[in-house]
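Just scan this pair:

***
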Amino acid sequence: MHIDRRAFFGATAAALTMPQLARAAGWWQSAPAFPPVDAHSVWLVGDSAPPDPVAMSARLAELAGSGSVRDGYLNGGVVEALEKAFAAHLGKEACAFFPTGTLANNVALRVLCGDAPHALCQQDSHLYRDESNMAQRMAGINLVPLDAGKVTPTQEELVAAFDAAEKGPYALKVGAISLESPVRRLEGGLIPSKRIAEIAALAAAHGTRMHLDAARLLLAPPSIDRAAYVAPFETVYVSLYKYLGAPFGAVLAGPAATIASAREWRHLYGGLIYQGWAPALLALDGLQHFPERIAKAHGVAETLFTALEHSGKVKRVANPDASNIYRLEMPQAAAEAAFERGRAAGVRIGRWDKGSIPFFVNETLLRRPVEDYVKLFLG
């Protein structure tokens, strides 16, 4: 009897669960130990739980049945509602939906630089490290990275960068300063508001416009007033998929004239997609509930940190400028034991490295009582 091997293995794979497939492939024991992606698992690494396509689809279907949501090339419908909601949340005059954060960042920079294609940014920012040099390749903007390893550029670094541009043999105007905060590469460090005000004053003195990559800003502690924090920046970008439940998308907010120009460049860059209602609908629903839930999650984390430190076995590393990422100092053996207990309980705990483990505050913390986490960490 002839058997089509491709059909046979395809049917077999479709019938198996991921754990069964993993065991059959022989790498189950060596694979990273992740909890299941369901409503009960907790992820103390990352900004949210991994997306669950089935749950996301069900939620989308439920929300889509609540009224007219469709847009036409990102005009009207729930896309417009999302833009208005984010403009209000960030205290800006206008807002535009973008398919990706990379596009939002680079369109913002192109608009702000105008005829002065010279911009300053952090060396560890996504703009400089993760966007394939798009600013230079697509817009001819020269990105000048400031010193690596620093969340906040010093005033001396910025003054030196302005001097290098403006006082050289061929004077250049610095068109824009782009800052990322929180800085994901530097464990989610936030630029202090006081420093933002000082940088903004320096930029204004040089006629330089300001952009903020605030992809993860909504994850910051509730003590951070979002609108006040972003006020010194002409444009600000926020991600829709990292923690708001959308499959993709971003928003860019700022003055009406600036955002109108950004919409034009969005079209020219190929970002004017036919329909954006699906991510907009999910993100709008997320935005309505997320601020309250992340505030509660930070409260849970504070209670947990206090209990762990009271035991004398765990110490939180001091970081006054943390957003949602902390480090907990503990012995390696204790950390590895906590990891194994977490794996059995469906709680993903960070791996020990150089004396500590990372701890991410996100909504999944609300899925278990604090006492459960204390037992997982302390045994």
Notes: The first helix runs from residue 5 to 15. DSSP finds 14 helices and twelve strands in the chain. Confidence is low (pLDDT under 50) at residues 1-32.
